[in-house]
Amino acid sequence: MFDPPNPLLDAARALHPPIGASADRIEPERQLPPSLVDEMAAAVTPIVRRPGPMNMARRLGFDPPAKEARMAAAEQYAGRVDAFAAQRTRWRGGRRGDRWTPILAEQARDDPHRPLDANLQALASYIDPADLVIDVGGGAGRVCLPLALRCRDVVNVDPAPAMQAAFEQSAHDAGITNVRFVQGSWPSDPPITGDVVLATQVTYFVRDIVPFIQQLDAAARRRVIIGIWSVPPPVQGEAIFELLFGGPFVRPPGHRELLPVLWDLGILPDVRVLPMPMRRTFAWPPQPTCEQMVEWAVRYIFSLGAVTESDARAKITAHYDALFMQDVDGYGPRWRTDVREMLITWEPRR
After folding, report:
1. When you count CB atoms within 10 A of the terminal residue's CB, does the N or C end of the chain come out lower?
2. Residues 232, 212: Cα–Cα separation, whole Å
3. Domain contains 328
4. Is the peptide bond before 7 cis (omega within 30 degrees of 0)?
5. pTM for the whole thing?
6. Which pLDDT value is given to residue 12?
């Protein structure tokens, strides 16, 4: 097989002496030219800062960059959150409101006793029976209620009243009593601590990401877990949003923006890509017929922005084939099928 030229690899081979040889025995003609040394240094910098075990970072003596460098990644992150929030405000005709409507909160519920899929099994593998788990932004309990069946206690910290109602109803219906809901934002006041602190599908909406991460780290006695999709769920269905509200669609921050913030804080997490791709989000549940899909889309879009139901129905119906598809689950929006969930996790710093 033909290998294309790789000057960095060739240079590394040239620089490495035979086993047992002294470094001062490298022949003069095998010394690196200054330009190639500079190129290797530039290439190595991002490699050193790729995610890895936290204890390895300590052994390597990793030092976080200066405050000015840390602020750059955090400011870029905040800019993406601001742009996404401004888009949602524009959809509402300038009116602000709680994005977690009762419609979405009810749709966010799921059976806590359901068999765990492969992704949730991976998350549950980090939980011990004696753990107190804090779920930051746990919403209606899709994740933390199944975990409550496998640990000592769960505390769900979430600011949305609609989510509290859905969470408490789900827990009651499932007979789960080792859970409680704290209505509030994160960082919490007073601080809450637990063995494992997790935040799944939350960071897309967090503007002040640095204090958010810092309290995740401070609150956890054993492990921090951030769950995130390779394409943020709010992006799914963007063609429908552009049709009804105009475009282009502004995406919230994802893992590409989050990881540099963590690295700049001196946190080198493990990144675990989970096996199951995204099939549906609770915002777009599959529908059994085309007509029911249209009605759900109209209802959902109407809850998001300043549109009339008749106008939304007419536009969605006219572009139905371009917007929706049928699969084994029913009808739903056309979207990417290669979207994967990731767990970004580390041991808290002490």
Report:
1. N
2. 18
3. no
4. no
5. 0.76
6. 40
In a domain, 131, yes or no: yes
Q: At what angle do helices 255-264 and 67-91 cross, to 10 degrees?
A: 150
The DSSP H or E segment spanning 327 is strand 324-327
| Radius of gyration from C-alpha coordinates of the chain | 24
CB of 140 closer than 8 Å to CB of 119: no
Based on the domain organization, do 34 and 85 belong to the same domain? no
The Cα 336–Cα 286 span in angstroms is 15
Mind listing the pLDDT tens digit for each residue in 217-243?
999 999 999 999 999 988 888 899 999
Rounded to an integer, what distance in angstroms lies between the CA atom of residue 310 and that of residue 317?
11
Domain membership flag for residue 15: yes
Residue 83 belongs to a domain = yes
Q: What does DSSP say about strands 153-158 and 179-183: parallel, antiparallel, or unpaired?
A: parallel
| Angle value at C-alpha 159, between 254 and 135, nearest 5 degrees | 65
Closest of 201, 229, 233, 207 to residue 79, by C-alpha: 207
Q: Determine the Cα–Cα distance for residues 74 and 314; give it in Å rounded to an integer.
A: 42
Residue 69: pLDDT band with limits 50, 70, 90: low
| Alpha-carbon 13 to chain mean position | 39
The enclosing domain of 212 has a CATH number of 3.40.50.150
Specify the length of the chain in residues: 350
CB 196 within 8 A of CB 220: yes
User: What one-character DSSP code corresponds to residue 95?
Assistant: -
Cα–Cα distance measured from residue 16 to residue 21, given in angstroms and rounded to the nearest whole number: 10
- Residue 299 three-state SS: helix
184 contacts 160 by C-beta, under 8 angstroms? no
C-alpha span between 304 and 293 (Å, rounded): 17
Task: Give the Cα separation of 150 and 152 in Å (integer).
Answer: 7
Residues 24 and 95 in one domain: no
Q: In 3D, which of 340, 54, 58, 62 has the Cα closest to residue 224?
A: 54
